[in-house]
Each structure stands twice: as structure tokens, then as C-alpha cells.
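User: C-alpha cells in, sequence out, please.
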């Protein structure tokens, strides 16, 4: 992990911990989940929003005013609006993507859930997704939410990441292993 990513993760973790404690105490976790969906959509869809949070060109005041207007337009909760304003005043908006991720992880952990990142060669059917989720639940002991992506270069099989564990059953990886074994022999 690069030093910048490590710093961002640390800063985001501290903000996430504080925000989650506040919303949990106020029993407003559902509102936070809605805020996170809204922010994630904005981060994914708006290049201008990403520029605002990452660009050093904007002053603290410009970032603060812009983020307040955006939060109001997005109808974010008071807690999230205040957090974003504080982050703007401290020049910490660049950690927003990491904050969203950390808050999602905190919510999932509190609910006893875990997210599995699944990459497959073809889109999984509902039956395949359900069977995989059930299998992962039995091995982790937690409710598993699948986050699926398709990568046709895998040829077949799956790559499953749950926390720090990764299971790679893709044909591409098996072919690479075979190729390496053949190089060692020859």
C-alpha cells in the first residue's frame, strides 16, 4: 500500500468511527446508508465532484461553500453535511471515497455482514449467486453480500475476495500456473 493511501485510510477511519458512533447513538443508521448511496453515486457519476474533493486549486472557503450547497441539494443528513463541512475546512475532502468505504464496512460489521467481491468470466445467475452466498455464509459465519463484476479474460471460474482472503479458481490463473510449471521443467 502506498504511503498516501495509508494516510487516507487512517484519516478516513477516524472520521468514519466518529460519524458511525454519532449516527448509531442517534439511531439514524438508515439515513447514513442513504447518504452513502447518494455520495457513492456522485463519486461515480460526477467528474466535477471528484475534481472538487481532490483539486488543490480550490480554497478552503470555496470547497466549504461548494460542499455545503451540494450536501443541501443531495438532501444529506445533518451529521453527514456537518462532517463534509468539517472535512472541507480541514482540507480533508480527498479522503471521501475511503470514508464512504469505511462507513459501509462499519455498518456491515455491526449487522454481522461481510461483502465478498466476486469476479467471474460470465454474469452469475440468481441461482449461482444464491448458492455462492450460502457457501460463503457457512464458511464465514456471517451474512454475505456479493459485489459482482465480469472479467471475460478469466476464461472461466471465479475470483472471490472476502476480507483479506482471496480464492482464485479462474482458468486463466490455472493456465498461468501450468505455464510457470512448464518453464521450470524446461
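Assistant: Sequence out:
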Amino acid at each position: 500500500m502506498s504511503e498516501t493511501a495509508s494516510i487516507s485510510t487512517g484519516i478516513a477511519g477516524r472520521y468514519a468511527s466518529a460519524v458511525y458512533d454519532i449516527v448509531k447513538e442517534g439511531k439514524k443508521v438508515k439515513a447514513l446508508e442513504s447518504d452513502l448511496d447518494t455520495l457513492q453515486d456522485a463519486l461515480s457519476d460526477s467528474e466535477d465532484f471528484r475534481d472538487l474533493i481532490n483539486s488543490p486549486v480550490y480554497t478552503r472557503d470555496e470547497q466549504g461553500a461548494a460542499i455545503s450547497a451540494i450536501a443541501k441539494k443531495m438532501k444529506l443528513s445533518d451529521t453527514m453535511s456537518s462532517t463534509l463541512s468539517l472535512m472541507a475546512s480541514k482540507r480533508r475532502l480527498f479522503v471521501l471515497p475511503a470514508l464512504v468505504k469505511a462507513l459501509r464496512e462499519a455498518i456491515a460489521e455491526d449487522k454481522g455482514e461481510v461483502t465478498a467481491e466476486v469476479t467471474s468470466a460470465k454474469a452469475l445467475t440468481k441461482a449461482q449467486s444464491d448458492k455462492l452466498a450460502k457457501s460463503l455464509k457457512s464458511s464465514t459465519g456471517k451474512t454475505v453480500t456479493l459485489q459482482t463484476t465480469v472479467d471475460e479474460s478469466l476464461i472461466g471460474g471465479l475470483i472471490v475476495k472476502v476480507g483479506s482472503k482471496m480464492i482464485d479458481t479462474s482458468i486463466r490463473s490455472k493456465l498461468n500456473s501450468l505455464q510457470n510449471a512448464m518453464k521450470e521443467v524446461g
